[in-house]
Amino acid sequence: MTEVRRLFRRNVRLNLALQGGGAHGAFTWGVLDRLLEDDELEISWVSATSAGAVNAVATAAGLADGGKAAARAKLREIWEAVQQAGVPDLMRLNPFLYGLTRTPQLAQMASMWSPYEFNPLGFDPLRRLLSERIDFELLRKQSPIELLIAATEVSSGRARLFRRHEMSVDVVLASACLPMVHHAVEIDGVAYWDGGFSANPDLKTLAIDSPVEDTLIVQLNATDRLDLPTGMRDISLHAYRLAFDAPLIREVELIEAVRECWQGRLGGPRGRLSKLATHRFHLIDAGRYTSALSPESTMKPDREMLAHLFEAGKTEADRWLQANRNSIGRRSSVDLKEHFLNPNGRSDNGVFSEGGVSERPSVNANGKAARDIPEGI
């Protein structure tokens, strides 16, 4: 039976959408490591922001250099370098930034200075780390995956999506530029801040432009917070989190609006937006792990935490593959509306495993509810 099943294995293609989250991106590293172990799975396009962008370019550079094994090695090299740096050099150089990792009192003092005051030269240790380990020229020329790396235009607040042929260390730094910590990153005369303010990550462009119709979202931030923040520090941290989660919520709302608009419409969806109505989405959620960590942990690449999140990501990816491999190319394995827009009322985080049915199915090209495609087709 095993030999027969092996004969009928099918290679599947999958887009990835990688959320930002600082050091919590080690969870995404674990997910990618497991996906890259899979001989039947091909990564097509990757939309990513901030820490997700670091993971994306490491994967793309590794694939360009030597395939899946090289991509796994490149990811490990990057994250080991992050861990070995410990508290970033920038924080060691400035006592106020260093305070961000120590006590709330010092963190409050640190907020009184802008990065242009405490770091006038704009030193960023991530620039050296990436420049020494990522061959961006090779990535641009030979990577087999397309990239959509998000950064936010400071002047307008709009998202700018950089593609593979535009990739550089500045693009990654722009995507990960927290304005309270780093100078804005200028590219072709335009100043950028962290992509999390505008696309965390982008789903719309990915679903419309990619020829592959399945996207796996790797979500780092917990969807909801049950307790009410009352202290000034907790309020500030939660406000930042809400700002970074809002773009993804808006994209899900758009996708659901398109689906509802075209539900049962004669002739089915038309134009570019039609792909939003029929695109299949999947999800691996790190919320149960990251919600147990302090908000400051995103800035502290602690060895034990990185190892814990890496293993958690790998475990969750393995579980997802076992439960939903056969959904790829056939059906969504997550109800986006239930998971993101109704988090307090959902069951099982809005995720349904093999054979499950969404309460709000996508629509197919004929405008009818998309049904499960029988196995073997």
TrEMBL record:
One of its GO terms (molecular function) is hydrolase activity. SUPFAM superfamilies: FabD/lysophospholipase-like. InterPro entries: Acyl_Trfase/lysoPLipase, NTE, PNPLA_dom. A motif (GXGXXG) lies at residues 20-25. The keyword Lipid metabolism applies. The active site is at 50 (nucleophile), 194 (proton acceptor). A motif (DGA/G) lies at residues 194-196. Keywords: Hydrolase, Lipid degradation, Lipid metabolism. The keyword Lipid metabolism applies. GO terms for biological process: lipid catabolic process. Residues 340-377 are annotated as: Disordered. Residues 16-208 form the PNPLA domain. This is Ferredoxin reductase. It comes from Hyphomicrobium sulfonivorans.
